[in-house]
Amino acid sequence: MPLSEIDLARIDALVQALGDRALPETLGVALRRLVPDLALRQCDADDVLEEPYRSAGACDLHLLDVSAHCIRVTGDPAEASGLLVAGRAPA
């Protein structure tokens, strides 16, 4: 099921509120509470080639299409049915 515009707005507000304090673990927990049915994955940012949907603190947030057998990163919010939290190493 694709993320709704309301879900995306709530996710954007969360990322903005966390700002530079965002860590992959805390962002993942907050996203699970904010959107309980969300398909959520986590990895290292070095494992992702695509540009992030949003970035905050030590996290890049990518939209995922999990509607088919294989999960894929998408840049289209209309196709997004999950999120990938990619943690970046501290600078």
TrEMBL record:
This is Uncharacterized protein. It comes from Novosphingobium mangrovi (ex Hu et al. 2023).
